[in-house]
Design goal:
This protein is an alpha/beta fold. It has two domains: 174 residues, Collagenase (Catalytic Domain) (3-Layer(aba) Sandwich), CATH 3.40.390.10; 56 residues, no CATH class. Helices cover 26% and strands 13% of the residues. It contains eight helices and five strands; from the N terminus they run H-H-H-E-H-E-H-H-E-E-E-H-H. The chain has a five-stranded mixed sheet. Strand 1, helix 4 and strand 2 form a beta-alpha-beta unit. The longest helix has 15 residues. It is globular and about 55 Å long. The two termini are 24 Å apart. The relative contact order is 0.16. The N terminus is likely disordered. The chain binds 2-acetamido-2-deoxy-beta-D-glucopyranose. The site of 2-acetamido-2-deoxy-beta-D-glucopyranose has 5 residues, from loops.
Amino acid sequence: MQVRLAFAVSALVAAAPTLAATLGGNLGCGAPSLTSEDHAELQALSMFPSAVEAERGPVSIPVYWNTLTDNSGQGNLTASQIQEWMSVVNKGYAKTGFSFRLAGTRYLQDSAQFNTKGVDTAATVRLRDSLHVGNQRTLNIVTLNMLSAGYVGYATYPWVYRSEPRQDGVLIHYDLRPGSTDPNNNLGHVLIHEIGHWLGLLHVFSGSCDGDGDGVADTPPQKTLSRGCPTGKDSCPNRPGLDSIHNYLDYSDDVCLREFTPGQVARMKQFYGAYRA
Ligand SMILES: *[C@@H]1O[C@H](CO)[C@@H](O)[C@H](O)[C@H]1NC(C)=O
């Protein structure tokens, strides 16, 4: 577990609380970088018959939503704010065959847990363990102050469920909700990104220009993450295709993020069939 939870974006970890309003635009999500074991899973997956997965009907995923707050009530999301965020997620996944329904919400007031110091600290591992409900089909979401850990969000990959079922799910900074104070991420799209990891997608900027990157054929090789909405960005000029700045699995501003590719949709279905069905 220690190896798996080494972070791809650890260089970005120093967060000053006073910059909280804008840090969402500078930090990354804490999706773990891939271990050799993860690569083996990805390779094994290419042996699954995609024709079978293509026939899979729509999948409705039950969501258990945990809202952490500090003792002053910071982080408190109203029921309608949670519903609004869920509907943003459903819009993002509208053409994928996946939909998400709120199966339960819970509130937990605990300043220390709210201001998490990392996603793999002993305290947070215990927290995730204690909150987890359901099985491999169930999406567990925890909203909290991720900026104190230096991230905007975090998700576990589907193949990790087998060995660490109670760590499965998504952590996300509470103030990246639709209408939040974050100037770059105020449409709720970071949650769409994190759920993409939970369904098995990698960042579109995974790997180098030469490798197979995120392992999805129709996302062009991309060397660097994107910020803002850099039209025309091409971090692998010697390879075909521009960077996927509008893809939910990049880091562009919310307003810029609007799509999954057909290859990513196929990949999510494949992963769901392999690990979550
Ligand atoms: C969160 O808000 C609700 C009202 O929406 C209130 O009843 C509750 O006490 C608040 N929780 C905290 C920790 O402030």
